[in-house]
Amino acid sequence: MEFSADSRFLRVLQSGPRGATPGGSEGNHIWSKYSLLSPSGTVSIMSVMKKEMDKYRDIDEDELLKKLSEEELQRLEDELEELDPDNALLPAGMRQKDQTKKNPTGTFQRDNLLAHLEKQAKEHPEQEDLVPFTGEKRGKAFVPKKMVDPIMENVTLEPELEEALASASDAELCDIAAILGMHTLMSNQQYYEALASSNIVNKQGLNSTQTGLIHSCVSYVVGVIQCAQYKAVPDEEPNSTDVEETLLRMKRNDPDLVEVNLNNIKNIPIKTLKAYADALIENSVVERFSIVGTRSNDPVAFALAEMLKVNTTLKSLNVESNFITGTGIVSLIESLQNNTTLQELKIDNQLSPSVYKLQSQPLGNKVEMEIARMLEKNTTLLKFGYHFTQQGPRLRGSNAMMNNNDLARVVRSEADGSFTLTLSVPELEMAFGKKFKSKT
Prior knowledge:
Blueprint: H1 5-14, H2 26-32, E1 36-38, E2 41-43, H3 45-53, H4 61-67, H5 70-80, H6 110-123, H7 159-166, H8 170-180, H9 188-196, H10 203-219, H11 243-251, E3 259-261, H12 270-282, E4 288-290, H13 298-308, E5 316-318, H14 326-335, E6 344-346, E7 351-353, E8 358-360, H15 365-377, E9 383-385, H16 391-416, H17 426-431, H18 433-439
Parallel strand pairs: 3-4, 4-5, 5-6, 6-9
Antiparallel strand pairs: 1-2, 7-8
Helix pairs in contact: 8-9, 8-10, 11-12, 12-13, 13-14, 14-15, 15-16
């Protein structure tokens, strides 16, 4: 005997749980919804759901989609579309559904949008004030009181006293101030000059005056102490060197161009500085070249290093206060192994650009040790401008400069016909000991 699905559900509604009578309590009716009775017994709900799902297995989805209208397809697409409104990284169009069906007017143009917004703001009338401004003044206008300057009365002294004070020196005025205890008459500079002078008679009172001066400054009992007026020092004039003209003169090997000073010229391109280094390769006149504060970097240092390997005229090179790193500094020092004419090299105060300000960058222990090692191999460099931060490289560098200066002194002495030997350096004493004994 077969039962249809309708007859099954009908029997479920009419029956209760096993052992209960039909028409029982509400709980029994609810329980009866979850059990189906068949002629052989209870059928689980899972088996019924499985049979219900079997009806949709043979359905053709493509056929169903073809029967849907455009509006129904659009609604289906909106339901299936996955949007994330909380994701701020997605564009606005991908975080929400389309709110309009209008066709796009074109691609986004920012300038046109700004012009439209500006035009719309100008055409929109301003909101009128609820209470118009009439310009009426109310109350009394504030009038500041006039400050009355104190009247300075001219004090007339006796002619002899006037003449004595007019011709008195600073030391004598300090002596009078010490006697009278009026320490506000002198400044600190006058006090120390008077204390060092031999013309002061009452130095004991002067010392007590200085003590009173300190106490009065702390307790604010007496007025302000006089300060020394220093002369204003005018600012240094900007460098007037013509960069392009000087470069042409170097390339022409101008005999009058012995020194080139480009210090503190900020707008020199890096290519121009490298052109200066290339011009010094063939130049045989320039002896001093300085590019302090010209924003030179490692490419300029590499070009100068190649120049030092060939140049035989340059005696002084100054590249302080630039942006040369340890690599560029080492290349400059290493080029001195092939140079025997350079006598002075200044590389101190190399800067590193920071977020807030320019600050000096340390080269580090490894770079300083390499510099000291190469300085020991050089015998012609007499002045080396760099402040070592480590004690070991500093001692080795200073000893190398002392050795070079003593060697240069020996060479000068031999050229003059006399011979002197500095015994402060053991290496030179050993090197020239035999020659010293032969001449004595």
